Amino acid sequence: MDANNGSISAHKGGIGYWAVIALAVVILCVGMPIFAGGVWLVMLGGSVFYAAAGAGLFLAGFFMIRMSMAGFWFYLLTFIGTAAWTFDDVGAHGEALFQRLVVPMVILLLVLLAVPCLRRRGVAIARKRASDAGIGAVSHGAFSSRERNA
Predict the structure, then answer these.
(1) How far apart are CA 11 and CA 131, in angstroms?
(2) H-helix or E-strand containing 140?
């Protein structure tokens, strides 16, 4: 068994892994109806915001299920777009901003808490790919010669 393979599978059963999966499923379940309603709204001549936000949430959840950092970046972009749209919609009215952004901010905090698990998984996958390609063996041989260590 490859040591890198063991480290990847060890993280699959941990509580962090399952917490990220649960968060990703929630984000997917929220994103799909927002996207569908947004497409319907666009067909009626309304704003494209909900379709874009739903697509961003769906992609964030999809990539988080795959334990990819792309999930974090999609959620962050969706949050920034939501904050900008909200500010444009209600202006600088603090209470209205808070009411519209409190749930996306809580989810952003949870996604930020998931980043170490996503990064760890990404590093493990990159190491496995490098080892599968033989890059690890080639670089180890190139840098461990007796002449260089002397």
Answers:
(1) 18
(2) helix 135-143
Q: What is the pLDDT of residues 7-66, one digit of tens each?
A: 444 456 688 899 999 999 999 999 999 999 999 999 999 889 999 999 999 999 999 999
* CA separation for the pair 115, 128 (Å, rounded): 20
Rounded Cα gap, residues 36 and 22, in angstroms = 22
Q: Give the phi and the psi of residue 69 in degrees, each rounded to 5.
A: -65, -20
Q: How far apart are the first and last CA of the chain?
A: 33
What is the pTM (predicted TM-score) of this model? 0.72
Nearest alpha-carbon partner for 85 in 49, 114, 112: 49
pLDDT digits (tens, 9 = 90+) for 73-102: 999 999 999 999 999 888 887 888 888 899
Residue 70 near residue 63 (C-beta atoms within 8 A): yes
